[in-house]
Amino acid sequence: MNTTRSLKRASAEDRGLSPPPLKRKQQSTTTSKAVANFFKPVSQKEPEDITWRIVHESLLIGRYQPNENSSSTEPAPKRRKIAVFDFDSTLVTPASGNVFSRDANDWKWWHGTVPTTLKRLHEDGYLVAVMSNQGGISLSSGSKSLKADQKRLSGFKGRVSAVLTKLDIPISVYAATGKDQYRKPRVGMWTELLEDYDLDGINSIDLLNSFFVGDAGGRSRAHKSANDHSCCDRDFAANIGIDFKTPEEFFLKEEPRPFTRVLEPTEYLPGSSGGPPDNGRFTKMNSLDIVLLCGSPGSGKSSFYWRYLEPVGYRRVNQDLLKSRDKCLKVASDLLKNGESVAVDNTNADAETREFWIKLATQFNVPIRCILFTASAKLCEHNDTVRALSGTTLNPEGRTMLPKLAFTGFASRYREPDLKEGFQDITKIDFKFEGTEEQKAIWAKYWI
């Protein structure tokens, strides 16, 4: 199993929500809180055996440990079998029939066999866990809508607590609330589980008999069934290297349905059949000129510059670093005055933006060429996510993940460059990943 980066926790970054479970002792008195909890309906009771904590202000972890009488006393096997489940639309569904649960009490089992199946897995020696994307919840203490966030968090914790109480087996729940390394299909929650249970190395896990069950399998519409909202659960299991099943396949024993992925990274690796042609078709033609890079964020412009343009003498002008177009034009002008060719590493999405650079080329009486990067929107999003979350090996400039608006904004403004604008030529570059074997293994996982 490959993991993309070390996710070791620092104690200062964990913010506990309740104290860790203590070993039960005989009590000679009963507290008023215990009396009040006794008369509450089961759905409203706060389980005494669940503890909560927060990691990096984005990952919520709940761990349920039944009382000693119901816990197994057998030692854990050396190689653990792990059964992981999504939460919503896999273990439970809103009892109200709504798409989303209204409150902590609005839930029912996805199917009547769910609780007995999970209990049997525990009896069979499986480590049972839940891993769920919960983007509607914020764990940040500085949230602008703190009251609403607290209500959503309380509702989710209430549902989880009720479910775990009904199951009454040792189980941990991991809820990814941010768009970071913990969000499926990224493997941060899995890595956190391995650390929590002291499972170090592939020899401590029985990957062959471990599996993940989730509803986001990328399935297309069939009969009365709608399309899956994504393929992130299937991709998550593939990243880990364990088997994947949908709830219908696992609980109801239905046959698998066809599925599609929004992106298959392996198609963009060197040597892949049917993949795009290799980069490197651009060659230097003029002693002094401007090369205008045009393409979406994440399309490979900066990597292309460092690999092919910088070695032949082009100086880079980038608005992310210089902060304004006027500053970029000023720096480019100074470089041209010194007899140095310029590569403009910006998106340059429309003719109006490109015209500034064409006028500069005319002013200095030098040719201007265009390199057009053709990567699809999903491929660009994949590249951006890998760059931001995979560590320094693929992010030498330390860039953070771009908002969705960066991609949609480019798409809305984009107009394909035309020679009539004044370019000497236009070279199209179809993306193909280039890097070391270690970088390839990271990049080829599913990230979006």
UniProtKB/TrEMBL annotation:
GO terms for biological process: DNA repair. It comes from the Eukaryota. Residues 1-40 are annotated as: Disordered. Pfam families: AAA_33, PNK3P. Gene3D superfamilies: HAD superfamily/HAD-like, P-loop containing nucleotide triphosphate hydrolases. GO terms for molecular function: ATP-dependent polydeoxyribonucleotide 5'-hydroxyl-kinase activity; double-stranded DNA binding; polynucleotide 3'-phosphatase activity. PANTHER family: BIFUNCTIONAL POLYNUCLEOTIDE PHOSPHATASE/KINASE, BIFUNCTIONAL POLYNUCLEOTIDE PHOSPHATASE_KINASE. This is DNA 3'-phosphatase Tpp1. It comes from Patellaria atrata CBS 101060.
